[in-house]
Specification:
Radius of gyration of chain A: 25 Å
CATH topology of the domain at 38-112 in chain B: Alpha-Beta Plaits
CATH architecture of the largest domain in chain A: 3-Layer(aba) Sandwich
CATH class of the domain at 38-112 in chain B: Alpha Beta
Largest sheet of chain A: 6 strands, parallel
Structural class of chain B: alpha+beta
Helix content of chain B: 10-25%
CATH topology of the largest domain in chain A: Rossmann fold
Order of helices and strands of chain B: EEEHEEHEEHEEHEE
Cofactor (chain A): thiamine diphosphate; Mg(2+)
Shape of chain A: globular
Largest interface: A-B, 69 and 56 residues
EC number (chain A): 2.2.1.6
Shape of chain B: elongated
Strand content of chain B: 25-35%
GO biological process, one term (chain A): L-valine biosynthetic process
Radius of gyration of chain B: 24 Å
Pathway (chain A): Amino-acid biosynthesis; L-valine biosynthesis; L-valine from pyruvate: step 1/4; Amino-acid biosynthesis; L-isoleucine biosynthesis; L-isoleucine from 2-oxobutanoate: step 1/4
GO molecular function, one term (chain A): acetolactate synthase activity
Helix content of chain A: 25-40%
Number of helices of chain B: 4
Oligomer: heterodimer
Distance between the termini of chain A: 64 Å
Number of strands of chain B: 11
Strand order of the largest sheet of chain A: 2-1-3-4-6-5
Largest sheet of chain B: 5 strands, antiparallel
Chain lengths: ~600, ~230
């Protein structure tokens, strides 16, 4: 940093709103900056000289520490500017992994994750990860190289209409066409990714724009005037909702991912405990309420617990916060919480009454609105009988499973063993499929931002790159465990090369059944057991593959190996992979078939 | 080994009495309550920049909103354009359209126009010119202008509300229509009523018509995020 002489500070020119004044004021600003530099310890960065430096400066100003990406022709100027930056760039093995790593970084840290890719295939490889972030409202900024503007539209080498391709899967995107604006475009993208309902944004960066000379420092990361967010809900509706809660016979709180993103977990926990309201979460809402608490009914929905599904089906008042009522949660709309008056808290007005009609629509920031409700609710609902009923369901529909020692290892046992071997604040990432559901059901989550998964898009292969991003966002003493499936792991395991190179302490437990297990389960239930393309028949030995990458490899075949092997893998200071050979016929229950009635969940295949 | 979990089977469980309709609204199980689609005009003031039209049209196609026409054009402010969309949806769908449009960053304000708003579209109708006098008479009947004529064809410009255009086209069809080009509806609110305000920012929700939410208790809520 010391080689960076103080010439002009970005803050100085930012104060000038008018472009022309800012330009002409540079000499003055430079003098002021020098005097400033004498009095502050912070070294002042050198002024930007081109578009790429403005892009990197925008990231630095936003406080970015890590970026994930892959080099390539059209993004080279930006990488050249990154070369001199304190931002730590993690070179990924594939752009999809860069997007997932940045996405997970955003989930764990709460700040937008940054991913970079070149034009054409670099950008299109990011798309899966961007779409994933869009479905889960994760803050993410994607920066893509683009062919020089004079070639745009000519089908040039590695040209793709990146903003066109990503429009449906981004919160906002921009084709940057002005070197003087390019830094501010990135600042704005960063702000938009974070503000209100978070989401992915993208800035497409033509190579000539990033190479062009400019001395324009980026504006502060602010959202445009056309973007406004309502923080506080309408007090009249808050009062009406509060009255409804006070008079509820069978109240339930349904906490979604918005509770975690809105930092409302603590407020919700206090509200639930104060008024003794049973709490159900959605899958993204896992971690918003401690699952070891008596009031926790855990996750509802297609593979939610029986007791959570009974609670949401029979409640008469549902306080739903930060959830978009996804079909995997609601099952059939006709039978979803059919007796319940719904109080819906969401920061996005478009989610209100989109899938489930809100009787009490409360648009606003989750934490703010829960505080408003706390003030408005004067008396707890009289729901002793209902709470007893919920506890009864917890024992009626216990998640206890059979694990005979002479049979193949049951996956639930492995998840529980991993949970026991690690601290409460351990971060769990997953791929998508059966293993993901077991990880939901049999790990006891107690803290927000410890569950990192692909919910809405359901992206197989999410787990390992997510573990890389989560590792860099986590505290040093936090463990990161990736519970993966064999099919999911196979999709992105090239990320092991990154984990080894960066010496990231992560443990991957592959629940290996040599099937696309969830598909196999559905084929058994709904396609007469015809295992079309779901049986891999052959899988590489993941422990040996891990060793080939330079990671530690372990293998589990029987129950007697589970505890010790997990202990060794967790203890290893670096990436490790446990190839866990589980019962290939193990199924996920309870299960509500697509569009089914949550209250009619199946506990075994013959009930489907 | 046994596969699955223990517990009362589905048929042994209590079931609730209520039901919701497909729009997620609780209904009396005896009375099927559905919203019928209706046609309405939505006007959006947007930043005049590349990509806005595709943002808007893409939104309609990917969310399967039924649109009848979409027009776009500049306004008196060089930085703003107006998009006018005619949609046909049930009330909850119209409400979603407005909310989803408002979420697009380049969209400044959105409003559903009153039924009495001024709505116009333009059609160019190219007909066979075998009976020029009769063509001219019909054109006059619909306040149309003949904008091109040659021995074989005459092209008449007709403007007006959709019903008038349709009636004109039907009448012209007696001459034999060669080609038609229509613009779709453009519209403005009447009198001092603003079609879509030019400032989006912050003013706590004022005068927009309440969203067409229905049923049960709280029927309306306010945005501070939009237009009004």
């Amino acid at each position: 940093m010391s080689e960076r002489a103080a010439k002009v500070t970005p803050a100085e020119s930012d104060e000038q709103d008018d472009d022309q004044i800012a330009d002409s004021a540079v000499p003055d600003a430079a003098t002021e900056a020098e005097t400033d530099a004498d009095t502050t310890a912070e070294p002042t960065p050198e002024p930007v000289t081109n578009g790429a430096e403005a892009v990197v400066r925008a990231l630095e100003n936003a406080g970015v520490e890590y970026a994930f990406g892959v080099q390539g022709g059209a993004i080279m100027p930006v990488y050249d500017a990154l070369y001199d930056s304190d931002i730590y760039h993690v070179t990924m093995a594939h752009e999809q992994g860069a997007a997932h790593a940045a996405d997970a970084y955003g989930i764990v840290s709460g700040e937008p994750g940054i991913c970079l890719a070149t034009s054409g295939p670099g950008a299109t490889n990011l798309v899966t990860g961007i779409a994933d972030a869009d479905m889960d409202s994760d803050p993410l900024v994607a920066l893509t190289g683009q062919v020089p503007t004079e070639f745009v539209g000519n089908d040039a080498f590695q040209e793709t209409d990146t903003t066109g391709v990503t429009t449906p899967v981004t919160k906002d995107n921009t084709f940057s066409s002005d070197p003087d604006r390019v830094g501010s475009d990135v600042s704005e993208a960063f702000a938009l990714a974070r503000e209100g309902r978070p989401g992915p944004t993208l800035v497409d960066l033509p190579k000539d724009i990033t190479k062009s000379e400019t001395d324009r420092e980026p504006d502060e990361p602010n959202v445009p005037d056309t973007y406004t967010v309502q923080e506080r809900a309408d007090p009249a509706i808050v009062d009406a909702a509060a009255e409804r809660i006070e008079n509820a016979d069978r109240p339930v709180m349904l906490l979604g991912g918005g509770v975690i993103k809105g930092e409302a977990s603590e407020a919700c926990r206090e509200f639930a405990i104060e008024h003794e309201i049973p709490v159900v979460t959605t899958m993204p809402g896992i971690g918003s309420f401690p699952e070891n608490h008596e009031l926790s009914m855990e996750m509802a929905g297609m593979h939610g617990t029986g007791y959570a599904n009974m609670a949401i089906t029979h409640c008469d008042t549902m306080l739903a916060i930060g959830t978009r009522f996804d079909d995997r949660l609601t099952g059939g709309i006709e039978t979803f919480a059919p007796d319940a008056e719904v109080i819906h808290v969401d920061i996005d007005p478009a989610e209100i009454s989109k899938n489930i009609h809100a009787d009490y629509p409360l648009v606003g920031d989750a934490e703010t609105v829960v505080e408003q409700l706390r003030e408005a609710v004067d008396a707890s609902p009289e729901a002793k009988k209902w709470r007893a009923q919920c506890q009864q369901w917890k024992s009626d529909y216990s998640m206890a499973y059979d694990a005979p020692e002479d049979e193949p290892v049951q996956p639930e046992f492995v998840v529980e063993a991993l949970d026991e071997a690690t601290a409460d604040d351990t971060i769990v990432t997953t791929g998508v499929g059966q293993h993901q559901m077991w990880a939901c059901q049999y790990w006891t989550y107690t803290e927000p931002r410890t569950w990192v998964s692909s919910h809405g898009l359901g992206t197989m292969g999410y787990g390992l790159p997510a573990a890389i991003g989560a590792r860099l966002a986590a505290d040093d003493d936090q463990d990161v465990v990736c519970i993966d499936g064999d099919g999911s792991f196979l999709m992105t395991l090239q990320g092991l090369s990154v984990a080894v190179r960066e010496n990231l302490d992560i443990t991957v437990a592959v629940l290996n059944n040599e099937y696309i297990g969830m598909v196999r389960q559905w084929q058994d239930a709904f396609f007469e057991g015809r295992h079309s393309a779901s049986n891999y028949n052959w899988m590489p030995e993941f422990d040996k593959l891990a060793e080939a990458f330079g990671a530690r490899g372990f293998r589990i075949d029987g129950y007697d190996e589970v505890a010790d092997t997990i202990e060794d893998a967790i203890a290893y200071d670096g990436p490790s992979v446990i190839d866990v050979h589980i019962d290939p016929e193990a199924n996920v229950y309870p299960m509500v078939p697509s569009g089914g009635d949550n209250g009619q969940f199946a506990l075994a295949e013959d009930q489907l | 080994m046994k596969r699955g979990l223990d517990g009362p089977a589905p048929e042994e469980r209590p079931t609730p009495q209520g039901r919701r309709n497909k729009q997620g609204i609780r209904i009396d199980p005896e009375v099927e309550a559905t919203h019928e689609p209706r046609r309405t005009v939505i006007s959006a003031l947007v930043e005049h920049e590349p990509g806005v039209l595709s943002d808007v049209s893409g939104l309609f196609s990917r969310r399967q909103f039924n649109i009848e026409s979409l027009t776009v054009g500049p306004t008196n402010d060089d930085d703003r354009a107006r998009i006018t969309v005619v949609v046909e949806e049930p009330d909850p769908g119209i409400d979603q359209i407005k909310k989803q449009l408002r979420k697009l960053v380049p969209v400044i304000s959105v409003r559903e126009l009153e039924p009495d708003a001024m709505r116009r579209e333009l059609a160019l109708v190219k007909v066979e010119a075998e009976r020029p006098d009769q063509v001219a008479a019909v054109a006059e009947m619909y306040d149309g202008n003949t904008v091109d004529s040659c021995p074989e064809t005459a092209t008449i410009e007709v403007t007006g509300a959709r019903q008038k255009i349709e009636a004109a086209i039907e009448t012209f069809s007696q001459f034999g229509i060669r080609e038609i080009s229509r613009t779709g509806t453009t519209a403005l609110a009447r009198g001092t009523d603003e079609t879509a305000a030019s400032h989006s920012v912050g003013s706590p929700a004022a005068a927009e018509e309440p969203p067409a939410d229905t049923a049960n208790h709280q029927q309306t809520y306010t945005h501070s995020t939009d237009d009004d």
